[in-house]
Amino acid sequence: MTKKVYFDRRLLELAGSQHYVVARDQLLKLGSVRQIEYRLETGLLERVYEGVYRVVGSPCTWHQQLLAACLASSGANGVSFRAGALMWDLPGGEEILEITAPRHRRMQLEGVRIHESYFLSDLDVTYLHGIPVTRPARVLCDLGLLVERGELRASTYELAFQEAVRRNLVDIPRVWREWERLGGVSRPGGRIVKQVLESFVPPIRKPETTPEMQLLQLLRAAGLPEPVPQYRVQLSATRQARLDFAWPEQKLYCEFDPFKWHGGHDRYMYTAKRRLQLEGLGWRGVPVTDEELDAGAPLATRLLSQRLPRAA
Fold it and tell me: pTM, whole model, 2 decimals?
């Protein structure tokens, strides 16, 4: 095998493992400066940032751009804030280029929002899809700054907290420790984080999905009594119905009822039969469609408030 073939093979193996972007320092461990320059001249590589290259013809993806930005900045760094939230699939995330770098090592990269922090080390960062990203507790603490600046809605931020706990990405004591380590109320956004931590109320049981978590927030905001998530009703000796949210004493339930759930004849018939069986047992249901949820569930909460006592 010639040196040229060996270098190209190693280059593509490395690039293929990290979204087809590579750093100059990485390539110098495989070959010489001249070999790198030759690949740039012949069109195998193209420069993304100083010292960071992309394999020409590879898909230009958000993940690729994120990793390129991380490779271009020096020291420990990671995808953070809204981009970090999206990497963790948390509410409030956006497909933008946003990273955090150590204090005094921040660089200016076109199209990239870069934050700097005194508190950033390898322990603050983990890897998702081969990309360094700040850990969930850090992401939640960072997002408090965006709420304070008016760049993120408080309700979205609270939902991100609930989602992170629901999916076991964090627990509340872990976020408290991270908040204290980063400076508590003296840190920008710290008071917002503290307010959410102090007011956090875990559900009786964890809802199964993000829309269900969002619906629970709306039920609470409407001042309704706390429902029981994932409540089971025995329909027959062998069959149960699991209700998204229930008030057993009133035999009342509320469920997220998205359009895609009724994707065919069999599913439609199953849902209709289930609803009739519940009604036969004295249960009344309030469905919440996609549009109703997006609107803040005003019709559903109004109907529920008429049928339920107000929360104490």
Answer: 0.87
